[in-house]
Amino acid sequence: MTAPADAVAGQVVGAPVRRKEDGKLLQGQAQWVDNMRVPGMVFLGVVRSPYAHARIVRVDVQPALAHANVIAAWSGADLVEEWEASLPCAWIPTEGTNAPEHKPVAVDMARYVGDAVAVVAATSRAAAEDAVELVEVEYEPLPAVADVEAALADGAPLVHDEFGTNRCYVWRLDAGEVDRLFAEAAVTIKERYRQNRLVPNAIEPRAVFVTPIPATGDFTLWSTTQVPHIARTTLSMVCGISEAKLRVVAPDVGGGFGSKLNVYAEEALALAVARKLGRAVKWTETRTEGYHSTIHGRDQVQEIELAATAEGKLTAVRVRLLTAMGAYLQLVTPGIPLLGAWLYGGAYDIEGYSFECTGVFTHTVPTDAYRGAGRPEATYAIERAMDALARELDLDPAELRRRNFITEFPATIASGLTIDSGDYDASLDVALEQADYDGVRAEQRARRSTGDSKRLGIGLSTYVEMCGLAPSAILGAIRYSAGGWDTATIRCLPTGTLQVLTGTSPHGQGHETTWSQIAAERLGYQIDEIEVLHGDTAVVPLGMDTYGSRSLAVGGVALYYAADRVVEKAKKIAAHMMEVDEAQVDCVGGVLQGPESSLTIKEIAFAAWTAHNLPQGMEPGLEASYVYDPPNFSWPAGAHVAIVEVDTETGNVELLRYVAVDDVGKVINPTIVDGQIHGGLAQGVAQALYEEAVYDDDGNLMTPNMVMYLVPSAAEFPRWELHRTETPSPTNPLGVKGVGETGSIAAPPAVMNAIVDALAEDGVTDISMPATPERVWRALKEVQQ
Ligand code: MCN
């Protein structure tokens, strides 16, 4: 794909440049892991527990070995020597956290439906699938628990006997005199919400392909991962392979939404089997297998209390969470609720803050990062509670928000972090105007007065979130095991093209385009002259990958600073070539202007390559790198308005309109930003209206595929109405904030507030997500009794 004609140097940042990535995706030329083939490769099949909790009495792989196309098969016990460490959990929030050992294949006990108990290697995928059925496993089923509250009850079946409890950890954050503020408050409210468990549904299922070189002990692991760098470090530890001998490649990756921010059993397994057999190994999940083995999101019970004056000025917020870990701790499972821990006060100025989160083991698929990770949960609780408080005070929810917005920036919030910049009133102004708030309220009143069975509801969500993960020192303080920096290298090639190497690992976010825009503008290249390389530890050895809407605010800023270094060196060379003082050379849009002549960066790059005439002692070549550790998170915010029609006879909810006003600081590419918001909104509305992973009391996943788990399509959504306000972030020279998760963070409370707003006069004050017609209908029946 070529860039539009207007995408020339100096005008590129902020332009709606078409995505460079899309040509190969649309024309079937992408490189997917599952398409890779080499001679002699074998296919893995994983035998998974059908029980949520069962002792593994006996595993007999002999019947599978008798299959003509089966090469090998192993029980968990057969493989224990392969593991030098547990599958990684990089975030143990407290010293006393109960962190279980986590082997890629269970040995004595299966702890969730889907837990791996044996592995087969066969010459074709079909044979591997057949052989999985042939392995004989004798289980002793045990009682299971799938619900966080039931898991903490006396006598609940234990997920890990050795801890004597299902409590994983308790983490607290307290600021200000919360008890006093509650005691003195004119009004207090206490709400209880449930975060439905969600199944991430990336278009591309998970897959891993390992090619070993037995003679040298080298391995290349191709994975559908968001985190090739983290995978290399951690898998080398799990499998006891020198990190220098392990290359991890994330080729084209078809979405992840957090679910591929992980290091999975199957990746370790493929490595171990490749080592054992000395042959290439492939594993690709089926969708149903993925529902049972790829992490889930959310699953939390929330209790939130607000204290306020009679005028509706918030004084304190108190929060208690029970969060499902699932059966094991995956890469960042226990840390996910902590990513929301600072945000339960929302965009509001409060004095006292108390947060407590209890992580709870259940016999279910482990939870972990899913788009928004901790911030959708926080935003949901505070935004729903604000509407509850507005009802209590008989105030308009927009007015209540205005009375409480933080207005001075940078703002150190009660929970202790500092919001970089914002203008929350401005976003709300645009949102209310665009939604025609007063007009919709008038129509709502009119419908009520005529007793229309189709009620109108309008819901707000004035969110703020923290992304751009993250200052390494803060990550260290909250016991995350890695840094939050990222890297960029710019290599000016002699023939007038540019290579940009980034430590981020896009899987749908369009980094090749936006990184090209940043480099083009700084250095005077055309978009098509720039090649962005990523996702291969042999090409970009240092990086922290893509999640937490961090890539632009960290990796993109690293690129900006690397460009500074290129310019710095180019100036020296230009001054030398022009025979003037360096101070007399200026660089604008990649042109080095001296007093009498000018040179482009491309010309300097060629001169630096020939190295015929460089300043004394200067290294040849024009290339620079930068490792950037951000001084703060980035804090996008905005105001979203959902307008719904609720049919009181059937319980059906129709989302009529959705107006989203987002402030993500300066925008590099408005088309990509809009696309990111579209996707996030779709997932946020899906959480509110459609999606829920349901477990029965025995720990069986009752929604094990897309027939039972309702992933909406574009047909279910209205045309998203997107608008922007802009408060540049002062913490980075691009002025940018992240955008990748804003939609999924803001949307659920906007939609649910709209539904409750529609039914408030009927007496309905809460409906759990997803607001299915049945749930809405039942809520109405309950209040009518
Ligand atoms: N951008 C911009 N201007 C801004 C902010 C961002 O032009 N002010 C551009 C960036 O340059 C980048 C894109 O928007 O091209 C997203 O940037 P950013 O907000 O930094 O987010 P990341 O690139 O770090 O992506 C991670 C984020 C997360 S956490 C999830 S989950 C998510 C998401 O991105 N998963 C996605 N978006 C996704 N999009 C797709 N297609 N697939 C996924 O799995």
Mind explaining what this structure looks like?
The protein is an alpha+beta fold. Helix content is 29%, strand content 23%. The structure holds pterin cytosine dinucleotide (MCN). Residues 202, 255-258, 371, 507-511, 514, 546-553, 556, 664-669, 672-673, 676, 679, 736-741 line the site of pterin cytosine dinucleotide.
State the helical fraction: 25-40%
Terminal CA distance reads 62 Å
Please mark out the parts with pLDDT under 50 across 5 or more consecutive residues, or reply none. 1-9
Structural class: alpha+beta
Number of helices: 20
Radius of gyration: 27 Å
The whole-number mean of residue pLDDT values reads 97
Bound molecules: pterin cytosine dinucleotide
Sheet with the most strands: spatial strand order: 3-5-1-12-9-10-11
Strand content: 15-25%
Taken from the alpha-carbon principal axes, the silhouette is globular
How would you sum up the major sheet? 7 strands, mixed
Number of strands: 28
Notable traits:
seven-stranded mixed beta sheet, 20 helices, 785 residues, five-stranded mixed beta sheet, binds pterin cytosine dinucleotide, alpha+beta
Brief rundown of the structure:
The protein is of the alpha+beta class.
Can you lay out the helices and strands and say which pair or pack?
Layout: H1 22-26, E1 42-48, E2 54-60, H2 62-65, E3 70-75, H3 76-79, E4 109-110, E5 116-122, H4 125-134, E6 136-141, H5 148-152, E7 167-175, H6 178-184, E8 187-195, E9 207-213, E10 218-223, H7 228-239, E11 246-249, H8 265-277, E12 281-284, H9 287-293, E13 300-308, E14 314-326, E15 352-361, H10 375-393, H11 397-404, E16 411-412, E17 418-419, H12 424-435, H13 437-450, E18 454-464, H14 472-477, E19 486-492, E20 498-502, H15 511-523, E21 530-533, H16 551-578, E22 586-588, E23 591-593, E24 598-600, H17 601-610, E25 622-628, E26 637-647, E27 653-663, H18 670-689, E28 720-724, H19 742-759, H20 773-784
Parallel strand pairs: 1-12, 10-11, 14-15, 20-21, 27-28
Antiparallel strand pairs: 1-5, 2-4, 2-6, 3-5, 7-15, 8-13, 9-10, 9-12, 13-14, 16-17, 18-26, 19-20, 19-25, 22-23, 23-24, 26-27
Bound molecules: pterin cytosine dinucleotide.
